[in-house]
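Chapter summary example.
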Amino acid sequence: MLGGGRALLMQLAHPGVAAGVAEHSDFRQRPVARLLRTLELTLALTFGTRDEALAAAHQINVVHQRVRGPGYSATDPRLLLWVHATLIDSALVTYGAFVRPLARAEQEAYYREAKLVGGLLGLAHSRYPRGLAEFEAYLRDMVGGPELMVDARARELAGAVLRPPLRRVPGPAFLPVQTVTAGLLPPRLRLDYGLRWGRAERLGFAALRRGLPLAIRLVPQRFREVPPARRARQTSTLSGRTR
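The structure predicted for these 243 residues follows.
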């Protein structure tokens, strides 16, 4: 959840993705419903049974088939790779920032397993960089290259991500979300989006990085896991005991 804004803003920096979102998504009108639906499908892909994961992938693929327009298509392998790359990278960056640093072998394993999800969503395994080092090089080239362009449309969409129009929720309530997103974003994109990153934001981000890992360790495990993850862990444990 903390890395969601980072991933979305990285995606929207690609004009093809921004066009698809602007012309086909209703998240600006229904931000909470869209967020909950996205979480439901993502958790099913990650922690669901085989049938649940396949059903979630089918629903996503059906929607993607309809998302197309002048110069873009949601089934374009280049766009699929960029979108999935931002999710993989944001998961690794956010976990490392707010939970604990991951060993290189753990990062490699996560990347390897995440590519399986891409296969369910129509992205061939051969489209991915082969290993984590090549994946990191791909990200550097994309962030530093000309393919990403934060234009007025991307900034308008980013505003809806960072300050969703929720009734009875004042704008200042979203300042922590903006600070976390700014702190996690690559510096170039943070600058291109015009996100505030002054002394107050840097201190707030640093305090969260120090305090959240401690808070997580103090919370009982049953409260640190979403129900699909808990069910998957329990099923895996029971399966191991019966072998």
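To summarize the output: Residues 4-238 form one domain.
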